[in-house]
Write a structure and sequence with these properties.
Layout lengths: L3 E11 L5 H11 L3 E6 L5 E8 H11 L7 E10 L8 E4 L1
């Protein structure tokens, strides 16, 4: 197993109203990751992914495209220390 990591991600573009959070949750669950995703008032999506480094990297790569109707312009990543605060992936409001 790879090292456990935590990434805080900010996704810019047409990422709200296109099922981005739901699709992100589905992808995170498929990769066995915990964390959360939420819409921000500025039109971006913020998410936290925690788990196996390879799985987090795969999800970060997926975020560059997102679900079919999204138009991602930029993905910014901040690496943090894992917290183990969540045991699943949730959508926050």
């Amino acid at each position: 197993m790879n090292k456990k990591v935590r990434a805080r991600v900010f996704i810019t573009g047409r990422v709200q109203g296109v099922f981005f959070r739901m699709a992100t949750r589905n992808e995170a669950e498929r990769h066995g990751l915990s964390g959360w995703a939420r819409n921000k008032p500025d039109g971006t999506v913020e998410a936290v992914f925690e788990g196996d480094k390879t799985a987090v990297d795969d999800l970060l790569e997926w975020c560059k495209t997102g679900p079919p109707h999204a138009r991602v312009q930029r993905v910014d990543v901040q690496w943090e220390d894992p917290t183990d605060e969540l045991d699943q992936f949730e959508i926050r409001f």
